[in-house]
Amino acid sequence: MSDLGSGDEGISGSKYNAGNMEGSLSRNDFDSSVKAGSAVEQELATKMLQIQSKRFYLDVKQNRRGRFIKVAEIGADGRRSQIYLALSTAAEFRDHLSAFSDYYASLGPPNTDNLPEDGKLKSEMMIKDNRRYYLDLKENARGRFLRVSQTITRGGPRSQIALPAQGMIEFRDALTDLLEEFGANDGGFKGDLPEERHMKVDNKNFYFDIGQNNRGVYMRISEVKNNFRTSITIPEKCWIRFRDIFNDYCDKMKKTSDSITADNNLPTTTNSLK
Length: 274
Fold this sequence. Notes:
Blueprint: E1 26-33, E2 41-51, E3 54-63, E4 66-74, E5 80-86, H1 87-106, E6 120-128, E7 131-140, E8 143-152, E9 159-164, H2 168-182, E10 197-201, E11 204-213, E12 216-225, E13 228-235, H3 239-265
Antiparallel strand pairs: 1-2, 2-3, 3-4, 4-5, 6-7, 7-8, 8-9, 10-11, 11-12, 12-13
């Protein structure tokens, strides 16, 4: 079967261009890099899989938000695409890989004369905070493959990888090895988060989204106008203080408005003494 491209733009990198990396788990002593405006990121472990003409790197990383797994796909032409998985999402993905593998094994040989209209044989979806992951086992003239697409709620880039179907078991086993060492617990708030809220004022839309990461629960307030978006993020630990300041301004503005209204409503008096 020929290589299955994911369609994402290629990004060069010395690590991912190294063709002689071993697939065994390895520890890196604070192998970190600092990007502009971001905290130090450490790579804790990595696995490399060669599946057909593609290489897949599974990197366990850690930054100030916690631990996660970056999955990078390198095509035969050097094009790279990647997705990010929280450890709990990686565990869910591993379980889905088992189900997809069982389904794939039950299929007969490919029949290019009777392909599904949309190419999909089986689909699942995963949700983690503001990210959605679409898992589609597909078939086309080049063969069968699992496409994993990552999207972010209301905008943001869409990224995806394409895993040849024959490599799903090997990929699952590599994920299992990493999860057995680092676990699948993200920590943080365990309850149900409130639903998103929306309000419109004149030609502006305001969105209130509650999310969670390894630092805790937060609220993101987004202002959208003419396809332009600006956002602020407020950690849950300071919501009460934020509310108190906001209420204080509301009270002061109300008092000022009431005072102006009262002054405007005073009757006009004239000197009637003679």
